[in-house]
Amino acid sequence: MSEFSPEEVALFEQVVKSRRSVRGFLDRRVPEEVLRKVFEIARWSPSGTNVQPWHVCVASGSVRDEMRAEMMRRISSKVPIQTDHAPDGKVGDLYRERKRACARALYNAMDVAWEDKPARAAAYEKNYTLFDAPHAAFICMHGVFGTQTAADVGMFSQTLMLAMTANGIASCAQGTLRNYPDLVRETFALPEDMKVLYGISFGYEDTSAVANMARTERAAFEENFQFLG
Ligand SMILES: Cc1cc2nc3c(=O)[nH]c(=O)nc-3n(C[C@H](O)[C@H](O)[C@H](O)COP(=O)(O)O)c2cc1C
Asked: Is 156's C-beta closer than 6 angstroms to any atom of ligand 1?
């Protein structure tokens, strides 16, 4: 028998389903005690042999302002991006269509036409503004770890975002925040072998931001799951 009541289980489902990527934030910091609380919850995430490989660097205030300005400067002056990890390979039709549907939902909400390449580029560049979030968490792990351990960091990140959701904090995971890892290492005085996987911008949702009208769907149940026996 579950140790949780049906109401508590329903609440869990509600937290999972109400987390979504938010791309427009209010200019309001998350209070220190709430910030610590969500990270305190997230650190109970599982990891292989309990290695707890996540190393998280949270930029707020003037640190956030300076990193944001520098990322925006680099992307607008076309400084080549240099990620610590190899990008994904070229995906087949099934995954390409899912990626397009996600982009379409966002561009529709922002009233950006698919054919309008400059508008699409501008929408992409907003990533580097942190969508105006007051905080950015750069999610790192040591360079000795590979994909197996990156999975642990993914579990940590979802726990973190759910803890944020439950506490009224909106978030957006951003692969784009892995693009200038040297800036993260320099800012947080990290050793060269600490690598950046991605970032999570977070804060309070600006419900008037059009990008926040976007909603994603999920593939049909049978597409992703197989049950045998
Ligand atoms: C690891 C990871 C990286 C992501 N990178 C970006 C990104 O760079 N920019 C962005 O706008 N959204 C990014 N997203 C958000 C996804 O587009 C989003 O999670 C997906 O479309 C599902 O929508 P939902 O989060 O609203 O449920 C990322 C999500 C994850 C998990």
From this structure: no
Instruction: Output DSSP code: residue 134.
Output: S
Any atom of ligand 1 within 6 Å of the Cβ of 18 = no
Dump pLDDT digits (tens) for 87-113: 999 999 999 999 999 999 999 999 999
One-letter amino acid of 109: A
Taking the domain 20-84+128-213, which CATH number applies?
3.40.109.10
DSSP 3: S
For residues 135 and 164, is the Cβ–Cβ distance under 8 A? no
Ligand 1 centroid distance, CA of 161 (Å): 12
Task: Output the pTM of the full model.
Answer: 0.97
- Cα 61 to its chain centre, rounded Å, is 19
Going from N- to C-terminal start, the domains of the chain cover: 20-84+128-213
The CA distance from 74 to 78, in Å, is 6
